[in-house]
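Researcher: I'm preparing a figure for a lab meeting and need a structural model of a single chain. I don't have an experimental structure, so a prediction will have to do for now. The sequence is pasted below. Please return the structure as tokens so I can convert it later.
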Amino acid sequence: MMRMKKSFLYGITLAAVFVGFSMMAGEAFSAPEKTNQMAKKAKRGKLEAKAEGFEEVDLFAAIAEGKLDAGVIQKGMKDGMLFIENKSDKPLSVSVPQTFGTRPILGQNTFNQRTNNQNQQLFGSGGQNGMMGGGGRGMFNIPPEKVISMPYESLCLEYGKPVPTSASNYEIVSMDEVTDKEEVKQLCLLIGTVDHSALQFAAWHMNSGTSVEKLAAETILRAGRRIPYFSQQQIQIGLAAVQRSKLMAQQVSSAEAAKASVASPGEAQN
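Model: Understood. Here is the structure written out token by token.
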């Protein structure tokens, strides 16, 4: 029983680490200075049609080209805030992926710097389904040298890892950087459309390989008594989300195979 409780505490504090530090140490989440500066200048972004005279760019491609910069504040397991700055002298219409990952960086590392920290906590985040309560597609029109902000919802992808220190900072990366499981990538597309706790159950089960029985047995202390962390309804919804995301992954695989076959008819015949 004690072993089970220890496992649960690691999983939950992993997800709520920044909320926990804020409550226990009385200090706010320490974002990199660059992100803090973005936050001071940012205005809330809005999904809309591409504005006339604005250059259409992909978020990650434009970051690589130096046209954009980005920072994130991962508030905890469920959500965070993304900041995008137009570093160019031209107005840009930015396409943000429907899903993306966030992962920790050390100290004041820059956005593009990578880390091999084996204890890093990874998150899958909802793009246009999980941002601003809307599921529509669109662009973020950003004038030159301006910064926009947008909230997002997220799922913790790793269960049972040690809690990061209060100095941990996060960066935005592609989903490929945080998971190689297509079904988990598809699961994150459901953010904002399915009960969040049910999706968290599914994420820990699929990405971390945590058994259904172990997750179902976890409890949380509330009002002086222990209650199940996941309700039976959330478990059932979560299991349905697992099957749905696996089906979605199969459809992606089939579509890619069909596309490859059309592109290389000679190889397909051989």
